[in-house]
Amino acid sequence: MDRKGTNILLAGVGGLGVLTASNIIGTAAVRVGKKVSSFEVHGIAQRGGAVIGTVRIGDHNVGPLLGDGRADIILGFEPLEVLRNISKASQSTIVITDITPIRVITPTQFTYPKLEDIFAEVEERCARLYKIDCLALARKAGTAMVRPSVLLGALSEIEQFPIGSQVLLKTLEESVPARYKEQNIAAFKEGADFIRAKRQ
Amino acid sequence: MVETDIKGGLVLVCADDPGGTSSVNEQDDRYISVLADVPMLEPSNCQEMKDMTKEAFNIAEEIHLPVFLRTVNTVNLSRGDLIFGKLGVPRRRGEIKGVPISFDRTRCHANILNKMEKAKELSEKSEFNRVITFNGIKAGKRIGVVASSICISYAEEIIGELGVETELLALGFTNPLPEKLCQDFISRFDELVIVEELSPFLETQFLKMAHEISAKTKIWGKETGHFPKAGQYRLETVAEPLAKVFGMDNPMPRQKGAKIALAARSLTNCPGCPHRNTYYAIKQVVPEDAIFANDQGCYLLGGLEPYRMSHAQYSMGASIGLACGFRQATGKPAIAFIGDSTFFHNGMSPLANAVHHNYDITVVVMDNGATAMSGFQLHPGTDRDAMCREAVPIKIEDVVRGLGATFVEVVNPNKIEETKEVFQRAIAHKGVSVVVSKALCKLMETREKRGKGLEIPAYEIDQEICNQCKVCIDVYGCPAFYEVADKIYIDDVQCTGCGVCQEVCPVGAITEKGAENG
What we know:
The complex is a heterodimer.
Chain A: E1 6-13, H1 18-31, E2 35-40, E3 50-58, E4 73-76, H2 79-84, E5 94-98, H3 115-124, E6 128-132, H4 134-141, H5 147-156, H6 165-175, H7 181-199
Helix pairs in contact in A: 1-6, 4-5, 4-7, 5-6, 5-7, 6-7
Chain B: E1 11-16, H1 30-36, E2 40-41, H2 46-63, E3 67-72, H3 73-76, E4 78-80, H4 105-125, E5 129-134, E6 143-148, H5 151-162, E7 166-171, E8 173-175, H6 179-187, E9 191-195, H7 201-212, E10 218-220, H8 235-246, H9 274-285, E11 291-294, E12 312-313, H10 318-330, E13 334-339, H11 340-356, E14 361-367, H12 396-402, E15 407-411, H13 416-428, E16 433-438, H14 442-451, E17 457-461, H15 471-476, E18 481-484, E19 487-490, H16 501-504, E20 510-515
Parallel strand pairs in B: 1-3, 2-3, 6-7, 6-9, 9-10, 11-12, 11-13, 13-14, 14-16, 15-16
Antiparallel strand pairs in B: 2-8, 5-7, 17-20, 18-19
Helix pairs in contact in B: 5-8, 9-13, 10-11
């Protein structure tokens, strides 16, 4: 790993699992002996607001924030929120995003942009965009609640991601309540399969 | 406390909030350490947060002064790998010795100043004040960088990207500053760049220290317009001025945002939140000219769209006192909102005062059984104490009656009509009226239900009946509703199954779908 390490940006809306996912990625990185610096938005901003998390993984200590154009991977929990943080992307960034929009309730005069317009602009600003119907895959895995695990599974299959998929899966298993363990594992596998299929 | 000759370690932690994402202002609390004459440590990352906490106790015990551990939001909200040390052996019991009260303030003050001289010696040799060397391109002039707190990591990263030869004086023990170390650093450079968030706390002291040694060193910072005094710093905030001083291209120019216009997501209470129901009910019955004093907690979001029920919100517990003042000053109906944990924290004394002076106000205690905004901390109204042991919960209505209030009603805000009726009477009541609006935080309730494997009902809109009046979106404002092509739907992922919207919908278009998990 070079001095810069790997920078991951997680973008979503409060309640979608951004913080849980960034903790799981960070914990997995510590397990493989990496230095981790992670940042998250807490508290009032979680209540229906835009939420971001960062995870910086490498061999050196760095600050927790990400500079513009410095994200290697963007993990999108909501399409509009990926676009909101697009300044963090560069032409070498891999973007993986859930396709289900969370509507903007207020201001009421704001109409949610067309999904194809959002994806077109994201595609223009990054190296590769993977669009995943996490909700459908999570339901297939047992419950809509395990949506974040679909994204984690997808992330584990990205070449630039520096942690082995088994470590990430193991960390996930140990981080979720026992009664949802099976569904989380199934969701993780759905996400991983999705990326593998797309890559071929 | 500073004047007391404390033998045990006393460490005060204070978190500043540049950017004000969770606070009412951007106050720079580093000045408190100067004002109070106490040593200050400032961690720049998770590891230092731990290491400095330990060191702060050591310093406090060594010089018998409280020590100030000052952090900023970016440090507080970060996580990282951490190396633990060995645990010390805690002393089991403290000891209070009889200290005669001294009225010799001058002697006390002189004593503190002596202690701060000792603190300065500790600062000079502290490992938290260190010089980091960078190899790279030599500039024509000798340029050094000074930073503290989170800005140390920003400066390190940007210097690394610039690839210049320089030295960074990273300061972690910032009151008193290590004068000899700083002056030696100043004297070795033609120019210095000071990187710090908020006020020019270091910069002003560096200007003074440079003056004392008649240094010709040019100091770039906030006073020279290179860095902003307001707002939270990002890497880009530091990149531009640093590149400018070093005469290099900016390695991290700000990138353009999205072309598509994006609305900011307004904050709102969670789907199914009982606070929304309290606001909805009270809004139906409150006089138009009423003034609302709000407080610190999730319910503060009632100050935003679509309720807009907050004319002022300051510190925890301020709402009740504010309402009294508003009533006195304007003669208009005044309503205070306060949460359960905030009430226990600081709401009881202003309420006693309001009752004693017979102010004509309505106090709404939004009792959701949780300190939900900041992470579900326990409080005297919960059935566990701060150590998570079983405890007797103190009922807010009992406290309120004990304080002498005569109009005290407890309502379940999830029953809109009943709640409206109670508020109508409360507002009409002359004198202090208190309504305890009591329903469990929806996040906790959902967690409990899922834990017990209980079914969470789902709701849908009968499109035959719905007339698209949009009361559910525009007036009630639950985020589970959305509109596509002039039809209103319920997002079954967002919906928490509270069913209160059935009472809100004027045409009765909302029906239960039958149970579904998730």
